[in-house]
Design brief:
Elements: H1 6-11, H2 14-19, E1 36-42, H3 62-79, E2 83-89, H4 94-106, E3 109-115, E4 123-129, E5 133-142, E6 150-158, E7 163-164, E8 169-170, E9 173-180, H5 190-210, E10 218-223, H6 231-238, E11 242-243, H7 244-248, E12 264-265, E13 271-272, E14 275-280, H8 289-307, H9 312-321, E15 329-330, H10 331-341, H11 349-359, E16 366-367, H12 369-376, H13 382-385, E17 401-413, E18 433-444
Parallel strand pairs: 1-2, 9-10
Antiparallel strand pairs: 1-18, 2-4, 3-4, 5-6, 6-9, 7-8, 10-14, 11-14, 12-13, 15-16, 17-18
Helix pairs in contact: 3-4, 5-6, 5-8, 6-8, 8-11, 9-10
């Protein structure tokens, strides 16, 4: 942690540390090309930070939370990312809010905060550095679900053009989302968590259509409360998003790479990697959103049944029995079965109907065993097999282009978490913070959706 007078002494070694993947992002040291930096950090709201016992919280001791949050601000201001996304921001405390707004404002940021619904006390803060971007628009997403979760969407435009074409300068536009998903207290909340992400992606699509935007990169930041092995991760990958940290370090989606880094020690004492900065370039080939959503929900249903030690035949018999039919699953039986399993929470009637429509391939209102097998053993989609980034480098200057990003570098702090370990002497939060640096590239202005 860099605070007070030690800041000046640290500046001389910043670039050397950076080359080792440590204190600060590359754009500070390398000014030869434009770059965009983004930091996400769950700063652990004092109302949740335990001090020795379940009932004693840091919020009761001003000196504790004040000092810790000043140290967090020291670190954020020192790094000077273009974009800062914070979760568990204590919006219910005016002094803390004022501290962040004052110090970030003096450092050149404009900040936007959003409280969780039902007066939970914490929320989100997104700060944009005025030297990097102007804010075109900001939107608040209220999920109005059992977790009272929210998200922020900011539409920003670069202050300095990233490149020029024959006619004019090109200023990059980006959509940025900051969110904090529900914690998976039990398996019945899996669909609720997935639904939160689905709502975000629906809103991003609707926003782009409403304002008739040209294809732009989308950056999703936050505490996703789920690892690389979870349904949220797989859902976002099916939509063409890449995990910036994994991309920078050449980690794959395989189980072998799933635990090479961590970013959180949760209230149960488990360490896991849950903080992500996702990138979607506008040339990514991806599934239609509704199709991807339906397949992800079916995956959760199948996993839930498997955890109940049900085979494929058992699962078909379970749903068929609730259909009061000897040969087929009916729609009422399908809904009754999901409700009995506790999996209808977070699903609207329209979404249940969409699931059924995708399962009932011949549209006869009955699900036979062959159709059920296609749910249980879905064919892999081409996008899910590879989803390679096809962002093209500059070609003819006469070719119409839009911007996309390469992941240049990504660093987690404290550095021990990059090796899958949690340091006992780390006190800023129960989360590591992630900083990613993106470099601009160009691509033909088409946007394939497979």
């Amino acid at each position: 942690m860099v605070v007070g007078s030690s800041l000046v002494a640290t500046l001389s070694s910043t670039c050397d540390n950076l080359l080792k993947g440590r204190n600060r992002h590359p754009s500070i040291c390398d000014s030869s090309e434009p770059s965009v930096s983004c930091t996400t950090f769950n700063i652990l709201a004092p109302i949740y930070k335990r001090l020795g016992s379940e009932t004693c919280r840091e919020s009761e001791f001003r000196d504790y939370w004040f000092t810790r949050n000043q140290s967090i601000l020291d670190r954020l201001i020192f790094e000077r990312s273009s974009i800062i996304c914070l979760q568990e921001f204590w919006v219910g405390n005016e002094e803390l809010v004022g501290m962040y707004e004052k110090r970030l404002g003096e450092a050149g940021y404009i900040s936007y905060k959003l409280a969780r619904t039902n007066n939970r006390g914490d929320g989100l803060l997104t700060a944009i550095h005025k030297d990097a971007f102007t804010v075109v628009n900001d939107r608040e997403l209220l999920f109005n679900d059992c977790g009272d979760r929210v998200a922020q969407l900011l539409h920003v435009r670069s202050v300095i053009p990233f490149w020029q074409n024959q006619n004019d300068d090109i200023q990059q536009e980006i959509l940025i989302v900051n969110t904090h998903l529900l914690f998976p207290h039990n398996s019945s909340l899996s669909i609720v968590r997935l639904h939160q992400v689905y709502k975000i992606l629906q809103y991003v699509e609707a926003y782009q259509e409403m304002y008739m935007l040209d294809p732009v990169p989308v950056i999703l930041c936050g505490d996703w409360n789920g690892s690389k092995r979870g349904h949220v991760y797989k859902f976002l990958r099916s939509q063409g998003f890449i995990s910036s940290y994994d991309t920078a370090h050449h980690y794959t989606d395989s189980d072998a790479d799933a635990h090479k880094w961590v970013s959180h020690r949760n209230h149960r004492g488990n360490i896991c990697g849950v903080d992500f900065i996702w990138l979607l370039n506008p040339d990514k080939c991806r599934m239609p959103l509704k199709t991807s959503w339906n397949e992800s929900v079916f995956g959760i249903i199948k996993n839930h049944l498997r955890h109940m030690s049900m085979t494929e035949n058992d699962a078909f018999d379970f749903l068929r029995a609730r259909s009061y039919n000897s040969d087929y699953i009916t729609y009422p039986g399908f809904c009754e079965g999901l409700q009995q399993l506790g999996l209808t929470k977070g699903l609207a009637n329209e979404e249940l109907e969409d699931l059924w429509a995708q399962a009932d391939a011949d549209g006869n209102g009955l699900l036979d065993y062959e159709e059920f097998q296609r749910i249980w053993h879905p064919l892999p989609s081409e996008q899910q097999e590879d989803n390679m980034d096809r962002c093209k480098r500059p070609g003819s200057m006469e070719e119409p282009v839009v911007g996309c990003f390469d992941v240049k570098n990504a660093v987690l702090f404290p550095p021990e978490v990059e090796k899958g370990m949690w340091p006992e002497n780390y006190s800023l939060s129960d989360h590591a913070h992630l900083t990613v640096v993106f470099s601009p590239a160009r691509m033909p202005c088409s946007q394939p959706i497979c």
